[in-house]
Amino acid sequence: MTATARVTAVDDKPKYVKVEFTQGPESGKEVELWDYAGMLPDVSRGDAVLVTYDPENPHRSLPHSWVADPPFNVPAYGSSAITLLLLSGAVLGIFRRRRILRAATAIRLTKS
Fold it and tell me: Could you give the CA distance from residue 68 to residue 48 in angstroms, rounded to a whole number?
């Protein structure tokens, strides 16, 4: 669910960003935004932001712009690249093994 919120507190590092919902069923409730790969949005106190949150657990909130278009970060894209590399290696290994087993079976059948 997406609602508007107002930034109420920002740490200078930033380690946290607190927002207060100004719209929707959670209006008036203050929560900390979740980070995305250790990153938090660059906002100032008093800024208005669109926030996407889980209606069953409003504490799981992210800036809507990050949900629609996640920012570039090395951990997310790096882990995706490693996953693709390992998956392609596994598929190539399966095809190679099948080819070797077929060749071994053909040799055994012709020797008898």
Answer: 17
Q: What is the pLDDT of residues 43-70, one digit of tens each?
A: 889 999 999 888 888 888 888 887 777 7
Question: What was the pLDDT predicted at 36?
Answer: 78
Helix (H) or strand (E) holding 64: helix 64-68
Dist. CA 74–CA 55, nearest whole Å: 30
Residue 81 neighbours by CB distance under 10 Å: 11
Bridge partners, residue 4, by sequence? 50
φ, ψ dihedrals at 38, nearest 5°? 80, 10
59 in Cβ contact with 17 (< 8 Å): no
Query: Is 80 exceeded by the pLDDT of residue 32?
Result: yes
CA separation for the pair 19, 49 (Å, rounded):
9
Query: Backbone dihedral region of 38: left (phi > 0), alpha (psi from -120 to 50 degrees) or beta?
Result: left
